[in-house]
Amino acid sequence: MNQLQKPLTINKIIIYISLGIAALLSITSWGYILFQSRFHLSDLFSKDTLIQTNQLITKLMGLDQDLSLTSRLSSWFDLRHLAYETLLMSICSIGLAGIIALTTCMFASRNFHDDTLFGYTRPALKIIYFLIRSVYSFTRAIPELILAIILMLFFTPGIWVAAIALAIHNTGVLGKLYSECIEDMEITSVKSLQTSGAGGGQLLLYAILPQLLPQFLTYLLYRWEVVIRTTVVVGLVSSAGLGREFRLSFSYFHYADLGLLLLWYVLLVISVDLTCSLLRKLISIRF
Amino acid sequence: MSNNLIEVDGVTKYYGADPALKDVSFSVGRGEIIGIAGPSGSGKTTLLNMISGLSKPSAGSIKISDKDIGKLKPGKELAALVGMIDQQYSIVPELNVINNVLAGNLGNWSLLKSLVSLIYPLEREKVSLMLKDLGIEDKINNKAAHLSGGEQQRVSIARLLIQNPMVVLADEPVSSLDPTRAEDIMQLIKSKLVTENRSVIITLHNTKLIQNYCSRLIGIKEHSVVFDVSSDHINEEMLSELYK
Amino acid sequence: MKQISNYVESKKILTLILVAAFIWSVMTIFNTDQALISYDGFSTLLNFLWSIFYLDITPDFLFICFKAVIQTILYAFAGLSLAIIIAIPVGILSSGTYIHNTYINNTFVVVLRFLLAATRSIHELVWALLLVSIIGLSPMVAVLALTIPYVGILGRIFAEQLRDVPEQPIRALLTNGANYPKAVIYGRIPLAMPNIISYIFYRLECGIRSAAIMSFIGIQGIGYQIHLSLLDLKFGQVWTGLICLTIMVIVVDLWSTTVRKALTT
Hints:
Number of domains of chain A: 1
Number of strands of chain A: 0
Oligomer: heterotrimer
Helix content of chain A: over 70%
Radius of gyration of chain A: 25 Å
Shape of chain A: globular
CATH architecture of chain B: 3-Layer(aba) Sandwich
Radius of gyration of chain B: 18 Å
CATH superfamily of chain A: MetI-like
Order of helices and strands of chain A: HHHHHHHHHHHHHH
Number of helices of chain B: 9
Number of helices of chain A: 14
Shape of chain B: globular
CATH class of chain B: Alpha Beta
Structural class of chain A: mainly alpha
Helix content of chain B: 25-40%
Strand content of chain A: under 5%
């Protein structure tokens, strides 16, 4: 009875302490924020904010200018190539990230180099494991935006900078998710194919991928939804796609144009979300 | 050059401080079908894993056709010597039956060929005939997970036939099947897998099946061999003593 | 049988379409006459990579980085805590389990779900830009820009978790005389709590990273610090900043994983 009770208590301690720390940090943070913005707070809750919000919405919809609906629609349509570029950027980067993650995730899973998967340890692979895991952690931690600005120093400005920045960041995210899948998978099929003489690559194709592919694809789709939102933001710094126009319109206070761009943005996000849920259904049916 | 196909000599296995097998020795000739029985945890699966090369003994040696299994890594050479099926998991549930069967070739195929076969299965005719022989030719394109337990074991048997090893190990192949299906599978094992050059080692609990299908029975209890007799000499007393 | 083969066929076609779309995107994106790497880009790249050996670990700069990290964490917690407070009632109402009257319920659910989805669609930086247009530059911009999308994310998950609670205990409560709101408070919320807390800690890591990029509207934080060093071309400092950022994220990630493991065992 004592053995059973002990682990439970440790977990509960962890949870309560964590919740306590979280609460403490939240209170501290609010204290800090309120102190920092003490001169702004009164403005925030004043009537002025409502007026400003109203103004913003009016400007975004272009109602402050004398524009007909048709001219608005045609301007909106003119921006379609930007949306197209942005969409392609997202597909390109998530595809690249997926391919690189797929080929490297095996090396980043613990059971690949210890004796769980292959029955014997491969010490040389342990070094590769640490290397790839570190790369994953590093690229995951760096927000895409910062990565993009750094890349701007080396690459000629264009849509590929955003694509590469997003690809690098998401390789880390997907790589970690994929390698965790491999660590948690059922290894019985792998063991059994080993007795038929299958080697590493063949085991990946015949045992690991069939089992994990639906999960891999689901993670890929989930990241695509995130990527399409971030592509615009990355475009802000890398002068690409919708993001570039966003920044320009914002700097020149062309709120009407900004409104149109926002419309394209929301449209893109919704379409990608719908496509992803459709593809997810197909995956679950097929498998 | 010994006449025996399999020589198990003084095999001992420790997992840390826990013994799994203590000084197990026996030999198997060609064309024999051996049963291994014993209570759960006595070491039967460990023994089979070691004969198949999936794990290595802490002491002692296992030789198949005079080749030391302990020195071989899983791969082409080992696959030509020994193949294994077990209770439920020797097929890949997500793949088609045909890909599962063709997996027996993986030791001999290059990576590229294996990849091509996944998309467009090679040797379709050969597999089709084999499955017909086993009674499941209509399932050739089905996903393996959609088959019943008995049908899945037939797929495993087909895979072994393609792999064509000298020794077949079967770890409780019929324990999860109902009596009729179990009889069918045992019959298939005896008729298809056992040849004059190939031997089969099966672990199982069912006394009737042991007496009907195995020529010899090895009893393992508490990590050691307690008896090794031909099946004519088995009696109820020995078996109940084994499982006490 | 036919159905299965239809699905298999459609899946093969779909895979082809997706692969084609990907290849098309790569070809279009990288289709340019200019060299990918700019004129002096290669030397800058090498310079940047080599600077990792010249990490700026002077106590002054390390202190600046440390302060920046703390600020980022505080912004993240402020934004997330407000998001949680708002998301709880929104999540409860939009889960459709609180109100008994179907018509009112459905309206609430539809409207709230739409609002949640809308706030979720827009990246926090875009919200930040919009908020700056309204209230000008203020720390509250960063906090609110984090709060709004996270209310969308958390609210939806809260609703889902409250809905996906095992039916038996809820039915037991209802048949024993509890009304719908009481069933939610005494039944659904306690049952869904472990999953909800687990998800909150999962989102914490995202929140930290989101807070880091709020630097682009001038809010103090590690992102801002890295940006400054980058503009000064002090690559050694940039590397220090990046490593501090990575450590911060890894620590939060470890904490988050530990709590989530403790919750699920």
